[in-house]
Specification:
Bound molecules: zinc ion
Radius of gyration: 18 Å
CATH superfamily: Divalent-metal-dependent TIM barrel enzymes
CATH class: Alpha Beta
Mean pLDDT: 93
Number of strands: 10
Number of helices: 9
Order of helices and strands: EEHEHEHEHHEHHEEEHEH
Helix content: 40-55%
Shape: globular
Distance between the termini: 16 Å
Number of domains: 1
CATH topology: TIM Barrel
Structural class: alpha/beta
Low-confidence stretches: none
Length: 283
């Protein structure tokens, strides 16, 4: 089913701004890095009152592990796996739709393909066992490594899609990571097609790269074709063919204007809905 949603990142999960997440016309809210149990309840209750579904973007709590399931970065892998189990427990208790984890994430590209595939196999198996045990869907978001190292995404070029499908785990396609990690749009589209059958969530944003740093910014029609931004319209023409959950995930540092983000939302939504209409007319 085609759905739209908003991520807590759009207000940096700031306690006093959580009320801004209840955008007009959305179906879902994805939250993480929460400051308190009271904040979590505020979002859950607000979502319930508006019939919105909710998911957790791990870490659920501020300061938790974000990148440590395979390699130790900020926490040990053991702490990271324990955290996933705790978050699944909470998700089950609160009736949350899925828990999203960053997987696979390789710190650097200095890992051989065969070894990396073995690590992915083991990780998927472990996550699938947790999914079955807790009865909560797990969505994996493959990430670029440190300093935008594309190795993690490159390893997936050869990884068999059917092994992922058999695991029963979901796949989150992060627009920005794939734009940064692939050489060009045609390549990005090829990979999107390759993974389409397991993609259930798409993180929507544009990006700005300045030296070593990059920021996720809202998509907006004024950036289309402009220097320094990714062309996102062709992405929606392709990705709009999928019945995915399109989730707005950006930080408010560079374009903090709410109206700007929502104008981009309406624009992208109409592009995606036009693709869907075309598809149903074909059928
Ligand atoms: Zn993302």
């Amino acid at each position: 089913m085609l759905r739209f949603g908003v991520s807590g990142s759009t207000v940096l999960s700031a306690s006093e701004r959580l009320g801004e997440l209840f955008w007009e016309g959305i179906d879902h809210i994805e939250i993480g890095s929460m400051a308190s149990a009271a904040d979590l309840d505020f979002v859950l209750q607000g979502a319930q009152a508006r019939s919105l579904s909710v998911s957790f973007h791990s870490p659920l709590w501020q300061g938790g592990s974000k990148y440590d399931l395979l390699d130790q970065y900020q926490k040990t892998p053991q702490e990271a796996w324990d955290q996933v189990a705790e978050e699944l427990t909470m998700a089950r208790e609160k009736g949350v739709e899925y828990v999203l984890v960053h997987f696979p994430f390789f710190l650097t590209g200095e890992v051989a393909q065969a070894k990396a595939e073995e690590q992915i196999d083991t990780g998927l198996q472990r996550l699938a066992e947790l999914q079955a045990h807790y009865g909560v869907h797990i969505v994996c978001e493959p990430k670029l490594g440190l300093k935008r190292d594309p190795a993690g995404l490159d390893i997936l070029r050869a990884y068999p899609v059917e092994r992922w499908r058999e695991s029963g785990l979901g796949f989150c396609w992060d627009m920005g990571d794939y734009f940064l990690g692939t050489a060009d749009w045609a390549d990005c589209r090829g990979q999107l097609r390759r993974w389409q059958e397991v993609i259930d969530v798409i993180h929507v944003h544009n990006g700005v790269v300045r030296g070593d740093r990059h920021s996720w910014i809202p998509v907006h029609p004024s950036h289309e074709g402009a220097d320094g931004y990714f062309p996102v319209a062709p992405f929606f023409a392709e990705a709009g063919r999928r019945n995915a959950l399109f989730l707005w995930e950006h930080t408010p540092h560079i374009f903090p204007d709410r109206a700007f983000a929502q104008a981009g939302f309406s624009w992208a939504r109409s592009l995606i809905e036009a693709v869907q209409k075309e598809r149903s007319d074909e059928a």
